[in-house]
Design goal:
By secondary structure, the chain is an alpha+beta fold. It contains 22 helices and 16 strands. A 6-stranded mixed sheet has the order 1-7-8-6-3-2.
Length: 541
């Protein structure tokens, strides 16, 4: 398999440490949703807590990650230590001090997951296919407003468990009614998620209040789109014919069983309508009557509730809940509607974290560019499993950079964001490609978070353990070449895996212990940031 010059630049490594586009994409997929081997029980890796949902086919429980790291001698050293690694490095390779000091991490937060377990003997073959489809779809999802799935387990008892992001704030019904500004804010975020889905040729097909959750109980909690069991990947926007979804958000074309991704836009219009006036547009006393009203597009923007709403909000509804799919807006057009002008202004104000934070983020992104590939992969794993509070500020920065609100940062968007720092075009492109580790041509959400973690996050013991376990999947206490080959895909050779191991292998034994991992994660950052500070001082930044 050939290796491109662009990929070498993107991963920031020498020509001898070659990583293919397929390898990096495989890594990102595998750190997104890990499909574990059959026979592994979720209880071995997670502490299961209270049941938060239960049905005839399974249940959903909260859980926390078990962080034991095999039986390495370093585990004993870690126990009893307080959090937050501060690493001291003396000299060159093979002369690293063995002392890793920890200072107290006062705001330590344990990541809580939602673990959905399905008993396969109680479900049909069609439902099993639906589960597999949901996992496959979630593998390609990386957006601030789409729920994360982390890994799956299938054990000998014939159960499948999916480890998901835990959204504890309830669905859209929980906080109703909404002000017009709140309705616009939620609708724009939903459309951003849909625009991302459609850019990947995926239609959700079951958008509704129940499938949009708040990530937590806080007033400013983000929404998360979930439940991709009925979603479908399509080619060239070819017509879909399955009669799936929930009746109150179905478009006329879904009822007629000939539709495209514009069905999601209709459903978004219905959701926006409900957010604005707290009632369904096609409400009826029977399913038959509701279907009749949907087919006739029989809804009203009149009455007391609508009298208090802006003309822009009404025009927005008319552009989405329209019979002809060709006249119906797409997600990009909907996001450009004037109704969202005030939402954008308010969001920019809320997301403005100050010049110092902006400078630190841009320095971190520049430092990340020159990190070795092993560190980039480890930081990606940390970012993937970070808590809401840990990435909240960086998510705001991402949304500021993502002008098109499609969940990705293009080179043009990145160029505009970096304009104030007097970078040359060559430097901008170099930093951009250093962040785009899968060589997709855009910076994805988690890639951006990984880049900011290079200097803006305190990598404490728990985060380092979670990242280490991404690679040490058989829990031996070491990262080996075989571990890397399993994570990075079958095309990743023994030679290339060995070269990555060398980045952190300070004692030269051909594998990475947890102690070496901690040292390697901190070793480069201080030097990189010092070099950048000197450069920024010269630039007057």
């Amino acid at each position: 398999m050939g290796y491109t010059k662009k990929v070498k630049q993107a991963v920031g490594i020498s020509a001898s440490n070659k990583v293919t586009t397929d390898n990096t994409k495989t890594f990102i997929e595998n750190t997104g949703v890990t499909i574990n081997a059959k026979g592994r029980r979720v209880e071995k890796y997670y502490r299961l807590g209270e049941t938060i949902g239960e049905g005839s086919m399974g249940l959903i429980r909260v859980g926390t990650r078990r962080l034991e790291i095999g039986e390495s001698s370093f585990v004993g050293k870690l126990k009893g230590f307080v959090r937050q690694s501060v690493v001291t490095v003396h000299g060159e390779r093979n002369s690293v001090t063995n002392s890793i000091q920890f200072e107290e991490e006062t705001n330590s937060e344990e990541q809580v997951y939602a673990i959905k377990t399905i008993i396969l003997s109680l479900v049909s073959a069609d439902f099993v296919a639906e589960i597999k489809n949901e996992i496959e779809i979630l593998q390609s999802m990386d957006h601030p407003n789409i729920v994360k799935a982390y890994e799956t387990f299938e054990d000998r008892r014939r159960t499948v468990s999916i480890v998901l992001e835990h959204c504890s704030g309830g669905d859209l019904y929980r906080r109703a009614p909404y002000t017009e500004y709140q309705a616009g804010d939620i609708t724009s975020k939903l459309l951003s998620a849909i625009r991302f889905l459609h850019s990947k040729n995926i239609s959700h097909r079951d958008l509704k209040f129940e499938n949009i959750m708040f990530e937590n109980e806080s007033e400013n909690a983000e929404i998360k789109l979930l439940d991709f069991g009925l979603s479908k990947k399509y080619k060239d926007n070819a017509p879909m014919r399955e009669g799936v979804g929930t009746i109150y958000t179905m478009s006329p074309q879904v009822l007629q069983r000939v539709y495209t991704n514009k069905a999601d836009i209709w459903a978004s219009g219905v959701i926006a309508y409900m957010l604005l006036v707290d009632r369904m547009p096609f409400k009826a006393h029977s399913r038959k009557k509701m279907v009749e009203r949907i087919l006739k597009v029989d809804y009203s923007l009149e009455g007391k509730a609508w009298a208090e709403k802006s003309d822009k909000s009404k025009d927005f509804i008319r552009k989405l809940i329209v019979l002809d799919p060709h006249e119906r807006y797409n997600a990009g057009q909907a996001l450009d509607h004037p109704w969202f002008e005030e939402v954008r202004k308010m969001r920019e104000k809320k997301n403005d974290l100050g010049d110092e934070v902006k400078r630190s983020v841009k320095r971190a992104l520049s430092a990340y560019k020159s990190s070795c590939m092993m560190k980039k992969m480890a930081l990606f794993a940390v970012a993937q499993k970070s808590t809401v509070s840990e990435v909240e500020d960086m998510r705001k920065i991402f949304q500021t950079y993502d002008v098109e609100q499609d969940g990705e940062i293009t080179l043009d968007e990145f160029r505009k964001a970096m304009k104030a720092f007097n970078y040359t075009e060559e430097e901008v492109v170099s930093v951009f490609e250093g962040l785009d580790i899968d060589n997709s041509g855009v910076i994805q959400y988690t890639e951006f978070l990984a880049g900011t973690l290079a200097a803006t996050s305190k990598l404490g013991e728990k985060k380092l353990q979670e990242s280490f376990q991404t690679f040490d999947q058989n829990k031996t206490g070491y990262i080996t070449t075989n571990n890397l080959k399993n994570v990075l895909g079958k095309d990743f050779t023994e030679k290339l895996a060995a070269e990555l191991i060398q980045d952190f292998d300070t004692d030269g034994d051909g594998k990475i212990s947890f102690e070496e991992f901690c040292v390697g994660m901190h070793r480069q950052t201080k030097k990189q940031m010092k070099n950048l500070e000197d450069k920024f001082d010269e630039m007057g930044v």
